[in-house]
Write a structure and sequence with these properties.
Blueprint (H helix, E strand, L loop, with lengths): L7 H7 L1 H17 L1 H4 L4 H23 L14 H43 L6 H40 L12 H6 L5 H25 L4 H48 L14 H36 L10 E8 L7 E7 L5 E8 L3 H19 L5 H15 L6 E9 L4 E7 L4 E5 L2 E5 L17 E4 L5 E5 L1 H4 L11 H12 L4 H15 L8 E8 L2
Helix pairs in contact: 2-4, 2-9, 4-5, 5-6, 6-8, 6-9, 8-9, 9-10
Amino acid sequence: MLKPKLSIWHFIAVLWPLLMVFIVAQWVMRMFGNSASIAIPWWLSLMDMTVFTVVFVGTAVWVYGPLKRGQSWLDKPTRKTQRYLEQSISLLPKRALKGFFIAGLCCAMYLILVLNIGAAVSGVVLTPRMSIALTLSLFYGAGVLAPSMALSMTLAYSVRLRDELAVSGLFLHTLNDDYSHVLRWNKISRRPWVIFLITSALPASILALFVYLILDADSASEQQFILLQAGVLFVLLMLAGAWLVFTVGKLLKQVMASFSVGLERMRQGQYDGYVAVLSDDEFGTLAKGMNTAFAGLKEREELKHGLEIAVEIHHAMLPVDIPDIKNYQVLGFEQSCEAVGGDYYDHIELPDGRVWLVVADVAGKGYPAALTVANLRAMLHALAHLELAFEKAAEYINNTLCETLTGGRFVTLFLAKLQPESNALLWLNAGHVPALLCRDGKVEAFEASSPPMGLQPDLTFEVSEQKLEKDDTLLVYSDGITEAMNYDSDEMFGEHRVKTWFAEHHTLDIAVLSQQLQDELDDFGKLAASDDVTMLWLRRAE
């Protein structure tokens, strides 16, 4: 694991270009003859360099101050220390803005004072125009360019430090809780204008003023001094401006690289990753938004995985094998309009050969309905094997559902008990769509004789009996069939159309009947487009 370089010395080392630019400025002044013209000795230049270094290093120590405590916490990080590091790094640019610009102005005033005193001691007279040129160049170089470079290098340091902390897993990769005060001055949209002001507008104005001073000068020596001072200013501008552009470009490249990695992870479906928040600006807001997206996508994947499990459980609740009932054929079909649904069918075989046939429709769709289906299935399987009277089982189911269902939800249920030895079918219909019995092309409806279950406790249920003859075919279905909508109109498939179709096709094998009814619904309107579709077929073969 990469250990972050969190140290005051690393931060100070980042500022080395400042010293180099100052040395170059001193060298250029001597090469152009400006230092000689105002009798500046070598030892004074060295002292100026020392003062400049001490002031900016001292300012760097102050800027780094909030991070100093974080150094000892890297080996044993906690969430509290991580938050402290995050807040401390967020403060670095703002402290740098304040500290380095004050330091630069102090250095500029020091240099102006020292150079004027040195010239006076040496007997050199600085004309007002020479003093103005010297003051402008020193204020621009020490008071603007040097702090701007220091600020850009601090930004680069904070970005690199955040990146290293993120790689090492020690950073929370979030923005400060309250970063609006940072964004007010650290907006990306302002940076081009700030760079334009520092590297174009301000130096161009100073150079234009130098031209005016040169044209208004009284002597050739005065003109030469101002011209050479303009040359020094130009060299400083080229060096510092190039470094500013290089630093800003490097920052953008690093931030964009972080976004590219995040987007590639997102494209590959690796939602465990995150994008390091490298700056407290609009880029940081974007990175935080991407991290929110990562969290949402990861949650969606977990939900999707949970949904896949729920679908498997839902399918497992439906019968897998076709029951082997002497002289009878049974076939079921169910398709949910969502991943899981509220329709349920079952055939529960008992040891004595009797079979319970069930089709239920839970009000609603999705997970709540599926949970009710699971509860209903458990009750039915338990009650079927308890030898409880048929109507008593229905009463128990109703009372239990009244206790568990809330918000006006209910269950419609068609429940039948087939006794193959006597060919008797006991059935009850609690608010369900009528089951259809087709005999010799005539269709009889088994209408509901009680309200749906779960609405009113202590109901009694009327149980009817039907003797089944050879080739009798029973269709029990859900309202997803009758309420299927037409492609081109608001017309529903309807019970009449189901009866007519059933009467015309009842001689077909029940497997063919089931498939053709599905095809008919697909031709009329998409199967299970808006509601779950369930059908259970029973035919006496002999």
